[in-house]
Amino acid sequence: MGEDPHVTGELPRGRRWSARTTWASRLNVPLRAFLHTETGSARVLLAAAVAALAWANLDESSYESLWGTTLSVQLGGWQLSHDLRYWVNSGLMTFFFLVIGLEVRRDFDLGELRERRRLTLPLLAGIGGILAPIAIYLAFNAGQPTAVGWGVVMATDTALALGMLAVLGPRFSDRLRNFLLTVAVVDDLIVIAVLAIAYPEHPSPTALFVAAGIFALVLLIRAAGWRWGPGYLLLGVAAWLAVSESGVDPVVVGLVMGLLTYAYAPARTELQRAADRFRLFREQPSPQLARSVRAGLAAALSPNDRLQHIYHPWASYLIVPLFALANVGVVVDGELLARAATSPVTLGVLFAYVVGKPAGIVIASMLVARLSHNRFRAPVGWAAIIGVGTVSGIGFTIALLIATHALHGPALDEAKVGILVATVGASVTTWLVFRLAARLPPARRARALLGASEGIIDLMVPVDPDRDHVRGPREAPVTVVEYGDFECPYCGQAEPAVRELLSDFTNIRYVWRHLPLTDVHPYAQVAAEAAEAAGEQGAFWEMHDLLLAHQGELRPADLLRYAERLDLDLDRFREHLADRRGAVRIAEDVDGADLSSVSGTPTFFVNGRRHHGTYNIEALSAAVTSAFAGTRLRPGDDREPDRRRKVGSEQPDEEPGT
User: Hey, which residues does 482 pair with through a beta bridge?
Assistant: First the structure.
């Protein structure tokens, strides 16, 4: 086996700036990782859509021949037979909706929606963003057979909308992305319900009753603590078959299974137990201990995290693009364009998405805030609400899915043209909104994009300048807290970034809190106590710097040598260590870490919000700059980030919303 990075201090290749000890680098799937996958897959989705259009227009017969090919599954006398397009639309897309359900459940358990009152405005905004487009579509199609296609204009393509927002919107606004994700998820939930109720084919109450029984069984075994993944997979397949036979689109099964899957942060006790099992395996490698290690690692992760890790990339990079390839193909000729220019279906879809979506979301948000006297208000500003409304006009994937159920023949082709044009129109409108917002003065721009509401605070124990170890001004508007371990190689890797951050920004304060991971770092506790002993003599930060600079030399003799180098009173230093006077202070930090669900080091908080992702200077500077934008929203506080320009380097341009 290779060297343990916790022992050598070396970082594994390719994991610099993103790892954490212990076993925690991927244990908490953050929104940022979700967004990264969605924005990357948006390019693949657009490429698949272009390929489908090109294919259909170059050789329509081969396009329709392939997707119309029948694929059958037969077991004895039982047979399930559908064309390839059905297997993609109602089979593979089930996994896409599983991912949506998982993300919704995660947001309820760990994200912004864990405070239930925060659901009120996005819920009503999402409903407004559904009712207004439906009203516009019906205004164009009232009294015509195509009025049945009203469900086409309800949905937002979450993946593509997030991808477009990443390209067109402000770079450093997680609030904005959270708000869009919540509104889009509301749309998706309602759309699935509409798909099941309004567009069934040959409904079978018996099959629906069987499906309901399977879901009840899932709830029972989950309550009993059953964790065997293949068993849930088999029950999911059985539910899919039952719903498929019922006439309801079986993609609903994926959403329901995702919503039933718990998300929780890993407990340090579980991580410690997994580390203990790994050490046993290292001492005595055997198949039995290998299975024990795998079981321990799996137990530390929530089922939600594990399933997202498995299915999210497949759904984003393969299933959704394949869906676009199977459904976007339409022959675009002069006849279709002439028909679409006056078609109530095309015009209804276009205006519903480009005008109705933003109007519904903005008006609903304003009404909720005003009628509740700002008790329920958006976590973002007015410009961001408009931007979320315009980018929500990208219905693409789910709009196409509904269209294939609601419309047929020429009307379906006209709806596809409307969906494609609306996607372009919504993207251009979103670009204009954020370009105009970028021209506002900094303070007004911050308020317009970030609003005035307070975000959720993840740091459960507030910073106390009289107790905490603080670098920088005591009353600085932005505070960076790090939970660290002096023997953790990743904390040592982050230290230069922290120093550069403090050099670049003069009006932030940096706080170090102890989290010695004694199960993997045998000298972390005594090193932390040595730092406290030095702090008693006014030299905490000097000792802090020495310990991180010499992470492989933290034995008691080394600590005494550092104390001597700092010209400390050695007798007092020894007495402090011998009496373990710093242990209580360190234990308090560890308790605070537990309350804040910190399971690995280093973990950073910026103004009370957990910093997700990497901890290089670019990522930390972005988080700090965004925090400064938030501080400018406080009454009477219009301080700008005091960032020093380095000699020989260019100051990066400030992005809209930063």
Answer: 512, 604
* Confidence band for 306, pLDDT divided at 50, 70 and 90: confident
List the Cα angle 257/259/260 in 5-degree steps. 65
Q: What secondary structure, in 3-state letters, does 485-553 show?
A: CCCCHHHHHHHHHHHHHHHHECCEEEEEEECCCCCCCCCHHHHHHHHHHHHHCCCHHHHHHHHHHCCCC
Distance separating the N- and C-terminal Cα atoms of the chain: 46
| SS3 at position 156 | coil
Residues 457 and 609: beta-carbon distance below 8 Å: yes
What CA–CA distances, in Å, run from 449 to 186, 441, 446, 453, 578?
Answer: 22, 12, 5, 11, 54
User: Residue 90 has what DSSP assignment?
Assistant: I
Question: What span, in angstroms and rounded, lies between the C-alpha atoms of 522 and 6?
Answer: 10
Closest CA to 631 of 513, 509, 512: 509
| Cα–Cα distance for residue pair 657/630, rounded to 1 Å | 10
| SS3 of residue 118 by DSSP | helix
Beta bridge partners of 81: 72
Q: Is 0.70 topped by the overall pTM?
A: no
**3-state SS assignment for residue 268:** helix
State how far Cα 157 lies from the chain centre.
15
pLDDT: is 647 or 76 the higher one?
Answer: 76
Which amino acid is present at 56? A
CA–CA separation, 395 and 41 (whole Å): 16
Sign of the four-CA dihedral 453, 457, 461, 462 = negative
Do the Cβ atoms of 304 and 261 come closer than 8 Å? yes
Q: Which two tokens stand for residue 381?
A: 């500003």
Determine which helix (DSSP H) or strand (DSSP E) holds 604, and give its type and residue range. Answer: strand 603-606
Measured CA to CA, the distance from residue 352 to residue 141 in angstroms comes to 12
Residue 474 pLDDT > 80: yes
Tokens of 24: 């925690």
> Read out DSSP for 5-72?
HHHH-PPPTT-TTT--BTTTTTSS--HHHHHHHHHHHHHHHHHHHHHHHHHHHH-HHHHHHHHT-EEE
d(CA 480, CA 616): 14
Nearest to 613 by CA among 14, 31, 1: 31
* Secondary structure class of 379 (helix, strand, coil): coil
pLDDT of residue 36 exceeding 60, the answer is no
Residue 598 CB neighbours (<10 A):
27
The structure tokens listed for 470 are: 């603080």
Give whole-number Cα distances, 13 to 5, 10, 176, 343, in Å: 11, 9, 34, 57
